[in-house]
Amino acid sequence: MHSPTNPIIPMEMLLLAYRSGIFPMADSRDDPEIFWVEPRQRAILPLDGFHCSRSLAKLLRQGRLRVTCNHAFDQVVEACAAPRPDHPESWISERIKASYRSLHLAGHAHSLECWKDGEDGQPMLAGGLYGVSFDRVFCGESMFSRAPNTSKVALAWLVALMKRAGYELLDCQFMTDHLASLGAVEMSQQDYLDRLESACSPARPEADLPAAYSALLEEAGDSSPGKLIAQSFTQTS
Q: Strand, coil or helix: what is 228?
């Protein structure tokens, strides 16, 4: 069922929806309306089940890609919504962009950006992801790559930071072959709601992704933080 046309989805409504296991989508990039989705089957990525291949671990250790947190949120969302050869349309409408920017400014939506040196020597945004964060839950919304494996690097950083910050649930919404290859699993919506309720329990403080990012950089010092991330996956694989 479509909602009335509004310039923005109220932040309280969005957070209540996510805490209830539902999320908004649009039929097209220019659609002013949104509809609420509650999948029968839900995909999550267990934080201890992320599949870090040898090639990805090597890429992380090399540190050629610089990863930032919340440095270019709007650019990441725009890149995720951009037309792709195999998918010219997008569910990320202008209204959804504005709504998630509001969440971001309130500290409930975060982005991770992968940067590489361009041909002119200037850093270019090569990949990234964004999602909604509350309690000890991160709901991944979308990711993109403009260079090979950059979205995988962003996802590896996300999983590592979530583990450091005390998150319990990484929601991937819908299962894809790509996510399955990285360790995502599928479950019923009811099983997801049970996990969601546990991760939203007030018994523990809310997880803080940006704080975990800053702590990782501080721990790495002059070394590459990617080495610490790759090492953490090696130790738990």
A: helix
